[in-house]
Amino acid sequence: MCIQFYGRAAARRMDGRMKLLSIAIPCYNSERYMRKCIDSLLTGGEDVEIIIVDDGSTKDRTAEIADEYAAEFPTIVKAVHKENGGHGSAVNAGIDNASGLYFKVVDSDDWVKQDAYLQVLELLQEMAGGNSVLDMLVSNYVYEKEGEKRKKVIQYRHILPQGKLFTWEDCHHFTKGHYILMHSVIFRTKLLKECGIRLPEHTFYVDNIYVFEPLPHVKNMYYLDVNFYRYYIGREDQSVNEEVMISRIDQQIRVNKLMIDYLVERKQELVKNKRLYQYMRNYLEIITTVSSVLLIRSGTEENLQKKKELWNYLKEKDRKLFTWMRSGIMGGAMNLPGRGGRKISLEGYRICQKIFKFN
Prior knowledge:
With 359 residues, this protein is α/β, with parallel strands linked by helices. The chain has 14 helices and nine strands. The chain has helices at residues 34-42, 62-72, 87-97, 114-128, 189-195, 207-210, 242-247, 249-265, 267-270, 274-298, 301-317, 319-327, 329-334, 338-356, and strands at residues 21-27, 48-55, 77-82, 102-105, 111-112, 136-145, 152-154, 185-188, 221-233. Strands 1, 2, 3, 4, 5, 6, 7, 8 and 9 form a nine-stranded mixed sheet that branches. The longest helix has 25 residues, at 274-298. The protein is globular. Mean pLDDT is 89; it is low at 6-15.
């Protein structure tokens, strides 16, 4: 393979200094697309550490490909092989093996845009030498949906300040569909390790926990308005496919309940930071809406009962939070009685489609 390194990020770190950015690539039977992902990241040169996490792949050459890259780029690529534990387990392994100052997750079927990538690295280098500590960098991401010529860009220009470090108090209101997802975020590695985040194993949709639990530890943020991450949508077996999500609804509910637990257990601390608490509460609202919509869409009595149980779980944990969420437009629509009420819930379904891009 031929990889060309560009610009400032090409400077080799032969003096043993810490890598600037660790990038974890969770891989499970990813032979068909992982090379495109890895190659897009290699252009970062010696400033980056690429951690390819082979999550117990058995059906293809994922493990061999990871070892090939590690052998060819020994100062940049690290291959980690582990028993299958799911996406969250692979992210955990990435954090455990990260030695860079900052940490990013890039899924094996996604990739990054080269010019934006180099701007990200340049900014991180600048922040690393500054007087203030950067905890979280936010950038834009692009939906690369199969068959669509026009790409949807998720950007934060009207929500987050630009050109400076800022705190939660400086953020404007986050509108529906403009939450900070795994695609848009880079965390300080030490922050992730110190906050003790451990994503559940053998569970999908844990990326919602990844961009939720560290937030109370984030003090200083920076928004870089570049279209960095390219989020591929189109595989039938993809976790955000609607039918797949319904088939894994118990995992979605598990993640939803863990997020409820986290917010409720830390509520007294979080309410001191009004903007942060509002953001986390609103994010939990959209996740609960997703769970409810999928349970309704499945059309089974068993899943309708699970929806009822989920809302009862929230009510038992925090009646005030339950009342707020239930009285909102989306929460109200999710809990209207009968078939007529379930038809109204389709509006919530359309909102969720826009945000999570399931088909």
